[in-house]
């Protein structure tokens, strides 16, 4: 997911070097009928960028998940939540 978002951001000329772009990922595992199952994945992205690039970043964030092979592969079985926090350069 992070790689797909980075690719979409790059197309909008937003840099995603590792000191500027990070993700914190957590998840929830539950017992579903005696089987442990991942039921939720929560992703919090942190992006440092010029203030004038915020609208482009939000547009990229709103659309990237539909292009992400990993997310699209599990989205029917696992609830995915994602947030984008931005800080100005």
Features:
alpha+beta, 89 residues
Walk me through the structure.
- With about 90 residues, the chain is of the alpha+beta class.
- It contains 3 helices and 3 strands.
- The chain has helices spanning about 1-10, 55-65, 70-75; strands at about 20-30, 35-50, 80-89.
- It has a 3-stranded mixed beta sheet, with helices on one face.
- It is elongated and about 50 Å long.
Fold blueprint:
Elements: H1 2-11, E1 21-32, E2 35-49, H2 54-64, H3 69-74, E3 79-88
Parallel strand pairs: 2-3
Antiparallel strand pairs: 1-2
Q: From N to C, what is the helix and strand string?
A: HEEHHE
| Overall radius of gyration | 15 Å
The share of residues in extended strands comes to 35-45%
- By DSSP, the count of extended strands is 3
pLDDT < 50 stretches: none
- Mean pLDDT rating: 97
Number of helices: 3
What is the strand arrangement across the widest sheet? 1-2-3
User: Largest beta sheet, briefly?
Assistant: 3 strands, mixed
Structural class: alpha+beta
Shape: elongated
Which percent range fits the helix content? 25-40%
